[in-house]
């Protein structure tokens, strides 16, 4: 503090700005801080404006080619470009910054390789995101299944990840290049009606026609069941719930019912309810649902 007071008293302002700290004059430092602050303020204003206009465009009625998925993805690209340009502008204010960066990378080959690999991965994720957005295998809000492992609703498609919320309300982040090459089951694509397979095994001495009639009667009572038959099917007398024998197993004959619901979530609830209801109805009707059992013989030595 005494040193600074001494400077202000013994030196004029012009000489004070010539003083160097770590090789940089005070004048350059003040100029750099002011310019960097103005650039940062300009970046924040541009990003705020970009977010505002994109939010506004999402609220409006749009054509299919400008849906929430594309608008959100393009918003991420625009904001990222603004930050990259702003960061480059700030770095350009530092003299010799390019030489310093090159010397650091030249002295650390492993770091340079890691950065190169990371850049390739980031680029592949961006390209993968573009393929997803414009080829449209799914959109924000779709209910999808990825590689028979991850099931949930698409919440957002960023530059690097696709964010999916599963039924446990957990957010799952999948890199775009991986999900772009995965097998996708999109329950929101096309018709939303979903068929549930309700399978129940009965014993070999069961009257199959009676078991099928009992099973169909129980399924027809469920409020989530919908009639998915065509006009031709109705005219030809095709039953609303089709039940067939699909397997003669070691201990049971498997009956499968095709039960339709309005969407995937309702189809899942329909199946769970019907498994319980059919089991209880079979118990009341004395229709056996067998299970494998074994006799163990212990020999005494």
Question: Can you put this structure into words, describing what you see?
Answer:
- With 301 residues, this protein is α+β, with helices and mostly antiparallel strands.
- The protein is 51% helix and 18% strand.
- The protein contains ten helices and ten strands.
- The protein has helices spanning 2-10, 13-18, 26-59, 68-92, 97-107, 109-135, 176-179, 208-220, 231-235, 264-284, and strands at 20-21, 24-25, 143-146, 150-157, 161-166, 171-175, 184-186, 194-202, 242-248, 253-261.
- The strands form three sheets. It has a five-stranded antiparallel β-sheet. A three-stranded antiparallel β-sheet has the order 8-10-9, with helices on one face. Strands 1-2 form a two-stranded antiparallel sheet.
- A hairpin with a 4-residue loop joins strand 5 and strand 6 (171-175).
- Helix 3 runs antiparallel to helix 4 and helix 8 (208-220) crosses helix 10 (264-284).
- The N and C termini lie far apart (99 Å).
- 14% of the residues are buried.
- The model is unreliable at 61-65 and 100-115 (pLDDT under 50).
């Amino acid at each position: 503090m005494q040193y600074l007071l001494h400077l202000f008293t013994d030196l004029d302002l012009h000489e004070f700005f010539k003083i160097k700290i770590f090789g940089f004059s005070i004048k350059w430092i003040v100029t750099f801080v002011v310019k960097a602050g103005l650039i940062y303020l300009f970046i924040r204003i541009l990003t705020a404006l970009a977010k505002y206009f994109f939010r506004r465009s999402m609220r409006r009625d749009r054509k299919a080619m400008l849906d929430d998925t594309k608008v959100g993805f393009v918003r991420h690209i625009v904001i990222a470009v603004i930050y990259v340009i702003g960061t480059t502008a700030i770095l350009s204010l530092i003299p010799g910054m390019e030489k310093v960066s090159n010397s650091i990378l030249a002295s650390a080959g492993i770091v340079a390789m890691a950065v190169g690999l990371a850049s390739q991965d980031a680029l592949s994720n961006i390209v993968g995101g573009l393929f997803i957005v414009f080829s449209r295998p799914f959109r924000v809000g779709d209910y999808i299944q990825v590689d028979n492992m991850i099931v949930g609703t698409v919440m957002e498609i960023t530059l690097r990840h696709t964010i999916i919320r599963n039924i446990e309300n957990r957010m799952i982040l999948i890199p775009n290049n991986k999900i772009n090459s995965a097998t996708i089951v999109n329950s929101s694509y096309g018709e939303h009606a979903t068929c549930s397979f309700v399978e129940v095994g009965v014993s070999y001495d069961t009257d199959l026609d009676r078991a099928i009639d009992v099973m169909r009667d129980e399924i027809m009572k469920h409020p989530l069941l919908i009639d998915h038959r065509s006009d031709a099917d109705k005219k030809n007398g095709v039953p609303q719930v089709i039940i067939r024998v699909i397997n003669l197993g070691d201990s049971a004959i498997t009956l499968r019912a095709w039960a339709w619901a309005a969407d995937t979530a309702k189809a899942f609830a329909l199946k769970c309810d019907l498994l319980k209801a059919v089991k209880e109805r079979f118990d009341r009707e004395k229709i056996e649902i067998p299970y494998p059992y074994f006799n163990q013989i212990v020999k005494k030595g």
